[in-house]
Amino acid sequence: MKRRLLMTMMAMVLAFSFTGCGNKKADETTATTEAASEVKDEFIKFVGTDIPKMDTEEAEIMKKFNSYFAEGTAVDTDALLKDLTDNLLPNYKTFLDDIQAIEVKTDEVKALKDQYYDAMNAQYEAMQKVEAAVKDKNKDIQTEAQKLLSDAQSKYTAYNDAVYALAQKENVTLNGEIATTATSEAGSTTEANTEAIDPSEAMTDEVETTEAAQ
């Protein structure tokens, strides 16, 4: 009788243990599903809402910057320098701060945000080099600016590739700059933002002329 009671109690303990394992497994599955949903939702908001707003800010700044290098016209370096110092660079710094202010929680979207920021920051540093090159009439600094612009574009391409990869992983279709949930694989990546025109060729004659006059 005692043995039978002991076996019954053991069976009850085992049954309780199995039930506990089952609940734990179900809880883990639910948590995983919720985490996956959080990544997808945050990714859609980031690519579909946050970044388009950032790109609009950046496009306005770069449109003005690029206007100084219109084909067939001489660069007004005095006007460019003043605009860089008074408007373009301060506005770009505000744009970078706005990127940093985007709130993201998931590691996947944080990584995208960091890549986007790095690309935009490289372009900002290139514009700072342009300012220094104009101010000092230094062709070596122009070359540094050119390299930074190339780095910025490479980093932006890497960011776009990362967006596409995460869209595929999360089963999100990208339509222009708007991401929407869908059952098919990701379509196309976002269009590249307005990149800076390489000022090196446009400014070369202006710098050389100034140097020769000295």
TrEMBL record:
Residues 1-26 form the signal peptide. It comes from the Bacteria. Keywords: Signal. Residues 203-214 have a biased composition (Acidic residues). Residues 182-214 are annotated as: Disordered. The keyword Oxidoreductase does not apply. Coiled coil: none annotated. Residues 182-196 have a biased composition (Low complexity). The keyword Signal applies. Transmembrane segments: none annotated. This is Lipoprotein. It comes from Coprococcus eutactus.
